[in-house]
Structure formats: structure tokens, C-alpha cells
Amino acid sequence: MKHLTQKILGTAAVAVFSFGLFALSCKVNKGSANVAFADTKKNASTPALSSDPLATTLALQNTFRSISSTVLPAVVEVDVTETTKVQSYNPFKDLPFFFGFPDSDSDKEGSTRELQQSALGSGVIVRKTGKTVYVLTNNHVAGNATTIKIKLNDEREFDGKLVGADERMDIALVSFESDDKSIPVAALGDSDAVQQGDIVLALGSPLGYFASVTQGIVSATGRSGGQIGSISDFIQTDAAINQGNSGGPLVNIYGEVIGINTWIASQSGGSQGLGFSIPINNIKTTIDQFIANGKVSYGWLGVSLVDVSAEYKKDLGISETQTGAFAAEIFMNSPAMKGGIQAGDFIVALDGHDVKTVDQLVREVGNLQAGQTSKFTVLRGKNKIELSIKIEERSNEVSSDNSKLWPGFIAAPLTDTTRKSIKLTDNSVKGVIVSNIQEKSPAAALRLQNGDVITAVNDKKISSVEEFYAALDTNKNKTIWFDVYSDGHTISTGRYKIQ
């Protein structure tokens, strides 16, 4: 098997989410950026600063110096190599070899080669136990690394070992061994106390420029976004964050780590003042779980949640201004189904506090411990119901098994707009539209298709989303079938047994 080595700087350095076209060079030459020099000559017409403003500025400058000198020794560069297998292809396989035959069979169709990629990111030392030093970074930096090198601020290098990584949170913990008791540990702050406008510094190795510091403010808190499947909210900052900053700390004016720099929104691939950091309070227990178990355990409810529009809420029979999370589908035999949650319920509170968004509920359920009983408040039409549910531990196998996801689609309301979209001209047809069918789900097994109109459930006519989900009550009905209108005809599906 041949080994191909490709040096790529920054492929794991920071996640870049583009809102427009951009070209991003993977090769970065240090010192190749254009440099402009400011004119240092004094302008006689420019008045000198008064002593008070200058003293204030000097005090702020000294604060930045103090923060940098305190925190940088705990900030590291994380150099990794990743090995991926790629399928080889020989474009000349069908051509005759006039000068002999190839002396290797590794280029045969279907053979694989290993591609090694080198990348770098940042990290921060968060704990020491004996000779073991623990470095916090991003999963997209070190989670799939074949080899890891940790470079300290004094440029000493150590071999790193992956302790644990979690893709959903995009966090990884790496360790290395050292007898040096003077290696510092960064202080962890309270990200819940962070407010819009707070001064922050971002530290790391952007584009490979080792031990760099940038400064800005907190632009916003509680942002969502990032990679698909992320369960974290984010601190938004205008402190310059570039590729290579990933895994590095975002610190407050006390030199405390309040976030881990993770991704940027950019049209160019570089910093545009839109950087996002995972709040450190979201990570503190994760560090403990990594050290103890090498993985993160999440609480599991067993519902598929959707943020819905005001128009949808109206058809669901609840206030258009009501906040919460819509349980569009439910896993059969899940904690949610065992505890009484139904597909179509609108979850408005968890353990007595309001649920504002889907992202919030996903995070809070994930933080619950397996075996813990929590109280969920749901709206079912106009009825408010409180349910006690025993949480289970989330497993990727169960939570991705669409065959147990009931009903396996989202019911959409029939409106003038949706009627036009499915070309339904018969205004006498009432019901809901089938949308977002999940592969291998009960809906797929019943041969439903996106755009079908369900007019009845178990022979009971329905005319709204509220009526549809009410008829779908799995506590009363263990066998369910649908009447479906499609292409001018109404047919009944087969029977589906709820298990």
C-alpha cells in the first residue's frame, strides 16, 4: 500500500462556514502577508493627549499585557497528522503497455492508498494530575488524529495522546507526560456571567503564527450554528479568529477562560469579526467525563424536535407567540413514549423553567443524567399536561434508528400556498401534507410519499395538524393506518403496529 503525504496547514485549524463564494489557500507561508508601516513622525498640528486619558489607556494596555503574560504559558499549539484511506484509480488501466507491464499491483482498480494530512490548531492546559498534563482543544482538531504533538509556549514539544473526543460538542481532551511541575494551568471562568460588550482576548496559533493574541468584545451570547448536529450554544466575538485558532481559549479581563474558539462565519475564509466560542461552562463536566471514562454521556429523551413557524403553531391549536420545541416524531419504546409524550406535543418547560428553542432543549436534555427523572410540560392542543419521564443514556445506534421513529414524517398544514406547491386544485380535500419522510421509517414502510395528503387516521377524518396528531394517539391506538389522497384518488395504507 503506497503512502501519500500531503502537508496542509489549517485543515483542522478552525471550522469555516461560508456565506458566499471564497477561495481558501491551504498552503500558508509564514511572513508572506502584505505589510504596511505607519508613519511614526509626529504631526505638529496634532494636540498631545492629556494625562488622564493617556493614563487610562496605559492602564488598559498594562491589563492586556498582564493577561497575555499570564495566560500564554498555558496555551499550546496542537500539531496533528491524520491518515485517511482513498480509493485509487488508474486512468491507463485499459491501455496496452508497450514498454513492459507495471511492476506493482497496488494501482489495480479498487485498491486503496493512505493519504496523510498534517494540520495544526490550538489548545489550552486545563488540568494536571501528577505527571499527566491535560490539554483542551476541538474535536475537529484532534479527534481523528493519528499522531499528536503538543508545543508549549516555550517551544518545548511533547507527544500527545487523545484522552477523549466528542463530535456533537466539538471538544477533545489530549494529554502529555512531563516531570516539569512549573507548567501552568489556565484558570476557568464562569461563562454564564459573560455579557454583551465584555472585553475578551483570543489566544492561539492563527495560520501557524505561534502564540498570538487578539482582542475584541463579546458581540452576543447564546448563538446557535456551527457544524451540523452541534448541541452547544456559542459566544460570538469580534476578536480576530482565523484558521489555527480552533481549540484556543477566549479569556476575560481577569485572564479566565470563558470559551474555546471553534468556528468563524466568513465570506473570504478569514476573520471578518464573526468568531464563535463554546462557553466553558458547557465543557467543565465534559473534562471530568473524558478523564474518567474517555467519552461523554448524554441524556436521551427520544424525540425528534423542530422549530416551527407562527402559522404552524396556529394550525397546531396553540398561541402563535408560544415558545417551546415541537416534538414532530417520537422513538418507539423511548423514555418519551414510556413517559407519555406523543408525537405532536409542544414542549414548553423542563423541570419548571421555560423552553425557548429546540437548541436549548437539546442541550438541557443532553446534560441530564441517565436514570434521572425530570418533569416535562407539554401542550397537546389547548391542554397543558405535566409528565414525569425517566431519562436514559443516549446511544448513537438507537438514536439513529429510523425504523423506530414514529410516524417517520412531519405533518404540514394545507394552506393556499401548500396546495399550490402540490398542485391540489380540489378545495374540498381536507387533511395534512406528508413532508420530510425519513428513510426506513414507518412512513417509508407504509409507502407514503412527500406531498401525499392524509385525510383520515383510522377512518377518522382530519382537517388540521392539531386533529392529525390527536388522532395519532399511540396510548389509545396500537395499530394505525391512514387514508391518503393522491392524484385524484383516496386509498388506505396498510396497518402499522406500534411497538
Give a nutshell description of this structure.
This protein has 499 residues and is α+β, with helices and mostly antiparallel strands.
Write the layout of secondary structure elements.
Elements: E1 3-7, E2 15-18, H1 51-71, E3 75-87, E4 112-129, E5 132-137, H2 139-142, E6 147-151, E7 157-166, E8 171-177, E9 199-204, E10 212-223, E11 234-237, E12 249-251, E13 257-266, E14 275-279, H3 284-293, E15 299-300, E16 303-306, H4 310-316, E17 325-331, H5 335-339, E18 346-350, E19 353-354, H6 358-366, E20 373-380, E21 383-390, E22 392-393, H7 396-399, E23 405-406, E24 410-413, H8 416-421, E25 432-435, H9 442-445, E26 453-457, E27 460-461, H10 465-471, E28 479-480, E29 482-486, E30 489-492, E31 496-497
Structure description:
The chain is of the alpha+beta class. It has 3 domains: 1-17 and 59-89 and 111-294, Thrombin, subunit H, CATH 2.40.10.120; 299-400, PDZ domain (Pdz3 Domain, Roll); 407-497, Pdz3 Domain (Roll). The protein is built from 10 helices and 31 strands. A hairpin with a 2-residue loop joins strand 29 (482-486) and strand 30. The radius of gyration is 28 Å and the shape is elongated.
Number of domains: 3
Query: What's the CATH class of the largest domain, please?
Result: Mainly Beta
Structural class from helices and strands?
Answer: alpha+beta
Q: What is the helix content?
A: 10-25%
Major sheet description: 7 strands, antiparallel
CATH fold call of the largest domain: Thrombin, subunit H
Number-wise, the strands total: 31
Ends apart, CA distance between termini: 48 Å
Q: Please tell me what the overall shape is.
A: elongated
Beta fraction of the residues? Answer: 35-45%
Q: Mean pLDDT, as a whole number?
A: 86
Query: Compute the gyration radius: what is it?
Result: 28 Å
Low-confidence stretches: 1-13, 17-44, 95-101
Give the count of helical stretches.
10
Please identify, by name, the CATH architecture of the largest domain: Beta Barrel
